[in-house]
Amino acid sequence: MAGSTGLPPLTRGLFMHKKMFTILIVEDSPADAEMTIDALREAKLANPIVHVEDGVEAMEWLLAQGAHAGRADGNPSLVLLDIKMPRMDGLEVLKRMRATEALCHIPVVILSSSREEQDLVRSWDLGVNAYVVKPVDVRQFFEAVQTLGQFWGVLNEIPDVY
User: Fold this and answer.
1) pLDDT value at position 81?
2) What pLDDT was estimated at residue 159?
3) Sign of the CA dihedral with 116 first, then 89, 59, and 68 last
4) What are the mean pLDDT values of the chain's consecutive 10-residue runs (162 residues total)?
5) Rounded to a whole number, what is the distance in angstroms from the first to the last CA of the chain?
6) Taking the domains of the chain in order of start, what are their residue ranges?
7) What are the strands, taking DSSP E only, across 63-158?
8) Helical ranges in 30-116 per DSSP H
9) CA dist., res. 103 & res. 100, Å (int)
10) CA 112: distance to chain centroid?
11) Among 6, 42, 129, 142, which residue has the fewest nearby CB atoms (within 10 Å)?
12) CATH architecture of 23-155
């Protein structure tokens, strides 16, 4: 197809006018992280994708500290955050992000297998932007992640001040 961008209709034309912000995946399960990355790539998103394995590493990446001190400046357009992780769980990451001026406006989507009402309520109390239970079906999981990536990574507008 001459002149085709190879991008889904939803995303065509948007990349020329918008800075590509990183999508940060905070997930301790290598299999779930790989599926999430594959789903975002299958959606043909141009956003860079970074994966960290727990809440401690997530905060270091977000604050450009520790092993991530030399990373490129800028906040991600989206944090896909698991809840149940070693060292620091996702709810503590969310709490710290919302309490940190430089991070408090970053969209956070909990992407978790937890259906526990207390996790859902606590997430909303802490200021999550969306809470998505990981579908068991792989195709449904891909579709859910692709929808999240396209909305938060492409369509959602972020002011220059953030």
Assistant:
1) 97
2) 67
3) negative
4) 44 48 94 92 87 97 95 91 95 98 94 91 96 85 84 71 56
5) 38
6) 23-155
7) 78-81, 108-112, 130-133
8) 30-42, 55-62, 90-99
9) 5
10) 12
11) 6
12) 3-Layer(aba) Sandwich (3.40)
DSSP sequence for 32-53: HHHHHHHHHHHTT--S-EEEES
Give SS3 for 26: strand
Structure tokens at 89: 């769980």
Residue with tokens 């604050």: 63
Measured distance CA(143)–CA(152) in Å, rounded:
14
Handedness of CA 114, 117, 122, 128 (dihedral sign): positive
The confidence score (pLDDT) of residue 7 equals: 45
Partners of 108 in beta bridges: 79
pLDDT value for 31: 92
Tokens 């960290």 sit at which residue? 52
CA–CA gap between residue 69 and residue 61 (Å, rounded)? 8
With contact defined as beta carbons under 8 Å apart, do 76 and 21 qualify? yes
The residue whose two tokens read 């944090």 is: 79
Cβ neighbors of 123 (< 8 A, separation 6 or more) are 83, 91, 94, 110, 131
Nearest CA to 149 out of 53, 7, 4 is that of: 7
